[in-house]
Specification:
The chain is an alpha/beta fold and 544 residues long. 45% of the residues lie in helices and 17% in strands. The chain has 22 helices and 16 strands. The protein has helices at 63-66, 71-90, 102-106, 110-121, 130-142, 182-189, 196-210, 216-219, 229-241, 257-269, 272-276, 289-302, 315-323, 335-347, 352-373, 377-389, 401-410, 419-430, 442-445, 449-467, 502-510, 513-519, and strands spanning 7-8, 22-29, 34-41, 47-55, 95-100, 126-127, 151-157, 162-168, 171-178, 223-227, 254-256, 307-311, 476-483, 488-494, 523-526, 532-534. The strands form 3 sheets. A 6-stranded mixed sheet has the order 1-4-3-2-5-6, sandwiched between helices. The longest helix is centred in the middle third of the chain and has 22 residues, at 352-373. It starts with 6 loop residues before the first strand and ends in a 10-residue tail after the last strand. The relative contact order is 0.09.
């Protein structure tokens, strides 16, 4: 079994369960929030989400000072858990697993709280120790990321504690739990206000506390995956700063170290009211987000990491996989993404021979031109996926299929790629035909400049590649490319010596204007008999 399990968040028929599947529910009673997921789990561990519910009773509030859960938090938590238990039973869940974490683990009145939950809801709650909490977070990470190569640090920051799971080649080497949750740190350091001095003291405490658990010599440069509300809100802020407000999910967002520090500095300088109104940040978390991000920054600094990769999944999904008795195994890097894209293409009834042929030509163009155009390895992967999916909207409407492709890709559950990559792929597919990218287009103009550059470069390549298969008959077997001083010359190689490539020559030429604009020199399509069609001769709308 592959490590990356499909989690489909489109609501399934609520009253029916597929043959062989089990409908189960998981409730995570955390220090800040209580979260539930109800899902149908296949024998292989595939998860179909039926419903979700969340509440934020903040059980950790005041715990450091009093040692006990407050009456108000207990009442809010029990009301939420009762609603969740009722929903799970109404949906026919055959099993409801409920666990509690740091706040309940540390509270002097935990036994009374758990007894009250059982009396009101009938649920027996299992209190996780720190290692169990870290293990479930790791299990969820294994199910969503390729962890089979190199070293990985999975960090989960809750309201009361910070959990670390350290793995090498997908095998856990160490689990630990530290009292560095967002609520706990806020109450200890920031109750008098958020200042640079207070944040510096907070970071110093975290830095000292993680030294023993995270030896730098062993974990320098490790991949860092973060789960929990601190990281999903951090990703929301980061994506909003990039103009990616259309992302379906923050899952798999890559946040560079420098951006993390910039965001932290920005939050420290803001008033509480400004933080509550910040795009991408849940207002309910505005008062504790600084402490959470400061702790995350110290973990990343400790391992001298380049970035944080964000997981929107955590303990609940780990519980579901545990309930399904799924034993996680490690996937080959990239396997999940390739399979996810291929499955999505099949569901959209994409014409596979055409899309694969366009992909081949697009990648040949990329390999010859991409480096000089300023493209990266990640751009090659994005172009490959966009080529396979560019006609995804064809079954909805031919005339506007490029726009339908954009919306379908943007809202698809595609594994193994970041939100920014998914937005890029959706836009590149959008611009494989029709008008070129323009700033007045809402899907394009609001994006960060670096993302717009990526979209424009890759769209330019995909348009030409698609033109070379205008007839969908693979008349062009290959292309030969020369970047000369006065022009880029692209010569199609016929699949058959008798093949007539006039349609493909015309198709590639009429879609070459954007490539000429991006590279700054004309594009010439050269037939085997020497005939030349130049982008300069194309009557094309203005390209921004």
């Amino acid at each position: 079994m592959s490590a990356i399990l499909p989690i489909n968040r489109d609501k399934s028929p609520r009253g029916s369960v597929a043959p062989g599947h089990r409908r189960v529910a998981a409730i995570d009673i955390g220090s800040n929030s209580v979260r539930q997921i109800v899902a149908d789990v296949s024998p292989e561990g595939a998860i179909q989400v039926v419903d979700e519910m969340k509440a934020a009773p903040r059980l950790a509030t005041g715990l450091s000072a009093t040692g006990a859960l407050s009456d108000a938090s207990i009442q809010a938590a029990i009301e939420a858990i009762e609603r969740m238990a009722t929903l799970a039973r109404q949906l026919g869940a055959e099993r409801v697993d409920a666990v509690a974490t740091s706040a309940v683990r540390d509270a002097s009145n935990a036994a009374a709280f758990l007894a009250q939950i059982q009396r009101v809801t009938g649920l027996r709650v299992r209190v996780l120790d720190g290692d169990e909490e870290a293990r479930l977070s790791f299990r969820s990470a294994v199910a969503h990321f390729d962890l089979g190569v190199g070293r990985t640090v999975v960090v989960d920051i809750g309201g009361g504690s910070l959990e670390l799971a350290l793995s090498a080649e997908g095998v856990i080497e160490n689990l630990s739990s530290l009292p560095f949750g967002a609520i706990r740190l806020t109450e200890e350091f920031l109750s008098g206000g958020v200042t640079e001095k207070a944040v510096a003291r907070l970071r110093k405490l975290v830095a000292e506390g993680i030294k023993e658990q995270l030896p730098r010599r062993d974990w320098r440069g490790a991949q860092l995956i973060g789960s929990g509300g601190t990281f999903t809100n951090l990703a929301g802020i980061y994506l909003a700063r990039q103009g990616i407000l259309t992302a379906r999910s923050v899952h798999a967002a890559h946040i560079p170290h420098a951006e993390l520090e910039h965001i932290l500095d920005m939050l420290v300088d803001m008033t509480p009211e400004e933080r509550r109104e910040l795009p991408g940040l849940n207002p309910e978390r505005a008062d504790i987000i600084v402490a959470g991000i400061a702790a995350a920054a110290e973990v990343l600094r400790r391992i001298e990491g380049r970035e944080i990769i964000v997981s929107r999944y955590g303990i609940r999904e780990g519980l579901l996989l545990e309930a399904a008795r799924v034993v996680p195994t490690i996937a080959d890097p990239g396997e999940a993404r390739a399979r996810s894209v291929a499955d999505f293409a099949a569901r959209c009834h994409v014409e596979q021979p055409h899309s694969s042929h366009v992909q081949q030509i697009a990648l040949t163009l990329f390999d010859a031109l991409g480096e000089r155009m300023g493209c990266s390895k990640e751009d090659r992967d994005a172009l490959s996926d966009a080529a396979l999916l560019h006609d995804a909207g064809y079954h909805i409407s031919y005339e506007r299929h490029h726009k339908h492709s954009y919306h379908l890709i943007l809202h698809a559950d595609l594994l193994g790629m970041s939100p920014s990559d998914q937005v890029v792929i959706a836009n590149v597919a959008r611009y494989h035909r029709g008008g070129p990218p323009k700033l007045e287009h809402r899907n394009y103009g609001a994006l960060d400049k670096s993302l717009r550059r990526r979209i424009k470069r890759l769209s330019a390549l995909l348009r030409v590649a698609d033109g070379f298969d205008r007839g969908h008959v693979s008349a062009v077997a290959d292309v030969k490319i020369r970047w000369m001083q006065r022009a880029i010359r692209i010569t199609p190689v016929p699949s058959d010596r008798r093949a007539n490539m006039r349609l493909e020559m015309w198709g590639a030429s009429r879609k070459s204007a954007l490539l000429a604009k991006v590279t700054g020199i004309p594009v010439e399509i050269v037939a085997p008999d020497g005939q030349v069609l130049s982008s300069d001769a194309i009557d094309s709308p203005e390209i921004e």
